[in-house]
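Convert to structure. Protein one:
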Amino acid sequence: MVPTCVLEEWRFFMMEFGELCVMMVGIYQMLQWCVDNWAVVLLKRQRAKLILGEVQDKYDIRLVNGINLCSGRVEIRHNGVWGTVCDNGWDLSDAAVVCRQLGCGAAKEAKSKAYFGKGSGRIWLDNVACTGKETTLKNCSASSWGKNKCGHHKDAGVICQCE
């Protein structure tokens, strides 16, 4: 994907001058950027997906339906089955543990009310109460696994800083 700055620069030239030669230079710059950088961008994306996949498998946690690899609905695997986390009591301390566990830096926001869409299947955790210092979400205080009075309309999510 061509960075926004390159696209904006091209649009500026078009609006400001509107000359064919400027348009051709802008198109050439965009195409040249794509040729020069497509492999790097693809490799970085693939590497990020592989790393996050390894982390998710290792720690039995993942983020779903986010705008990037470090945002989304929180899902946790228990006894080999993926399920969601209820937003009762969900706050920034809980989100901080998830973000750190996934290697996504600090937590920016703790999301509630299925902000990233409703999950399906089991709701594993409810009334999560992390101090923010735990290494994994499973180390936080919560109701017993699978015991909740929650629906998927209350699935918890996070937005991390993506460091």
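Protein two, convert as well:
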Amino acid sequence: MAGHAAEHGCRRLAHPDGRPRNLHHAALLLVESDINLPGPGRALMPVFRLMALRARRRGIDRMLEEKYYRQG
């Protein structure tokens, strides 16, 4: 999944204040975009990697890709 396209699609899946509606979507965005959280948030990256793996196993990455990346 392309990170930039995923970010654009995931924006639609966020609350108006920017919080994600689904943590699996946020985890996929962080991991696929190769984003590293600064400071204390860095300790959460292994958790987000596990959540992204779980999301991939459930097919959430493919669902997001079909819905937001391949809209042509």
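The longest helix spans residues 45-58. The helical segments are 3-11, 23-32, 45-58, 60-69.
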